[in-house]
Amino acid sequence: MTTATLIDALKSLLEPGKLLTDSDSLNTYGKDWTKHFAPKPLAIAFPKSIEQVQAIVRWANQHQVALVPSGGRTGLSAGAVAANGEVVVAFDYMNQILEFNEFDRTARCQAGVVTKQLQQFAEEHGLYYPVDFASSGSSQIGGNIGTNAGGIKVIRYGMTRNWVAGMTVVTGKGEVLELNRDLIKNATGYDLRQLFIGAEGTLGFVVEATMRLDRAPKNLTAMVLGAPDLDSIMPVLHAFQSKLDLTAFEFFSDKALEKILARGDVPAPFDTECPFYALLEFEASTEEVANQALETFEYCVEQGWVLDGVMSQSQQQLENLWKLREYISETISHWTPYKNDISVTVSKVPAFLHDIDAIVAANYPDFEVVWFGHIGDGNLHLNILKPDNLSKDEFFAKCVTVNKWVFETVQKYHGSISAEHGVGMTKRDYLGYSRSAEEIACMQAIKAVFDPNGIMNPGKIFPL
């Protein structure tokens, strides 16, 4: 069958205008935020119903054409990149919140619902959807589930996994499964829902999900604290956690702050220049809680862990303090950063950071390195910025040579090579640093059950 005949057969399964093959669409929908791989999809399909997704999967099985899911394309591991003639299945038109249950505090969403859309919907109903990150204005619920997205509130609320009450999926065989049916308690064997969370579309496509909502937090308040060194960050975390229920605890380096301030969008938090900064957030529900935060700050200053700090006094100041952290990824994207998204248990963070920092200093002496991350849950983002005098390929090649030492250190501390960005194509060759050979074999066997013909996002998580 010719390519044109294949395309015509696929086009007949969709509504008019919902299959694109022009070069601009192929380039736009064939990639995500990574810049490692050139997109080369066959076509972009936009289903509008579960039945159409099912028809696409059956067509792909019949003709042995690979499929790649596409949400907001904000991924950082090339999990949504179509580089080998795949058909991209984009969920932009499956973007409705279908049902709200005020008693169960749940919202049933199609896969293409944008994270911010769900957050605003929850707010309109006096509730809260807590999974939050810088790309919430464009990332989609299906993609969040596919990568088990985390973000800035994990220390209090956990990952996306914690908020999925149930889901509907189309497997790689074209079967429709309804998983868990939104139950809180369900002791009836394997929880297949959890297999699809974090699977990056390699088992099938999430087409609907019922997301749990929570009560809205009261009087969220942020503090930004300047620290003299890396060793001071974790004692500050411990001091505040022993007194307050934190909703976030982030950190970033002076180089990260320097890039943000250079944009001119937000003022410096205070005049004192510090090598590292911590941003923490909590509910100042009473004056007593706010006073406890200030007392803890004073204690940290007395211990020499904090050099200066500020606490938000208004919603606008809260937002400005958060911009110091949330704008980092977008700001440094100008330098085509090579990113590592790594994690260890919180207790191991200080030693782990020192080991990684030593590797970076020894091997990237001429590169600018920007540290930031969700240090309150053990997640660190290591960003090496590309110098102007190197091409992208030359720069990435230099960075890849150091990966072995970075990931050997991750393995030494029993950590993860990908804390929240997924494996995709950028981390697939390093999976063995976080998973045993036996675990990987079990994962591949599970994929074969749900996707026997290997059409669902091939080359992601595991090599082709």
Automatic annotation (TrEMBL):
Entry annotated with the keyword Oxidoreductase: yes
SUPFAM superfamilies xref list: FAD-binding/transporter-associated domain-like, FAD-linked oxidases, C-terminal domain
Record carries keyword Flavoprotein: yes
Entries under InterPro entries matching the protein: FAD-bd_oxidored_4_C, FAD-bd_PCMH, FAD-bd_PCMH-like_sf, FAD-bd_PCMH_sub1, FAD-bd_PCMH_sub2, FAD-linked_Oxase-like_C, FAD-oxidored/transferase_4, Oxid_FAD_bind_N
MF terms in GO: (R)-2-hydroxyglutarate dehydrogenase activity; FAD binding; metal ion binding
Quaternary data: Homodimer.
Protein name as it appears in the record: D-2-hydroxyglutarate dehydrogenase
